[in-house]
Amino acid sequence: MMGIDCTYEAALCKAMVAAGIKIPRTGAVLLTLADKDKAEGVQLARAFLAKGFQLLATRGTAAALQAAGLPVQVVPKIGEGSPNLLDYIKGKRVQLLINTPSPERRAEQQGLLIRRAAVESGVPCLTALDTAWALLRALDAETWQVHPIGQVRYAAVSPTAAPAVPQ
């Protein structure tokens, strides 16, 4: 899929829409981050909270968010009881998943299961914090529109020549 726009953020959102991904504007974001990403993840979570999202996180990520004073609901990992994060994802209690890969073998194996559940359940899944930041900036701007590829040429010539595709 491809998204074309003047900014990376808008092009990213267009590509996501073209791929059939529903970009959430509200709901719950589930964060399960590698240790190296937790400090930046706090700032990212704060930004999602400011946009009105509810924060869900696995134990380690939740501890980092709570230490920063952010309200977060702890969601058990795979094997830590039920309902766990797979149940949350499959049960549509999560509108966006941010899961950054970990170098630890067990964490990466679980990460694969988590990301697969998200894809199978239609939950957008981001695996890099810079992509999550770009999504937030695009949601802030909300000026991008999606046009069918056949209308792109006309839209570039005249903004009124091709109506935007409803989202």
Provide an overview of this structure.
The chain is α/β, with parallel strands linked by helices and 167 residues long. The protein has two domains: 1-23 and 137-167, no CATH class; 27-123, Methylglyoxal synthase-like domain (Rossmann fold), CATH 3.40.50. It contains seven helices and five strands; from the N terminus they run αβαβαβαβαβαα. The chain has helices spanning 8-18, 38-50, 59-67, 85-90, 105-121, 129-141, 152-157; strands at residues 28-32, 54-57, 73-74, 96-99, 125-126. The chain has a five-stranded parallel β-sheet with strand order 3-2-1-4-5, sandwiched between helices. The longest helix is centred in the last third of the chain and has 17 residues, at 105-121. Residues 154-163 have low confidence and may be disordered.
Brief characterization of the structure:
The chain is of the alpha/beta class and 167 residues long. It has helices at residues 8-18, 38-50, 59-67, 85-90, 105-121, 129-141, 152-157, and strands spanning 28-32, 54-57, 73-74, 96-99, 125-126.
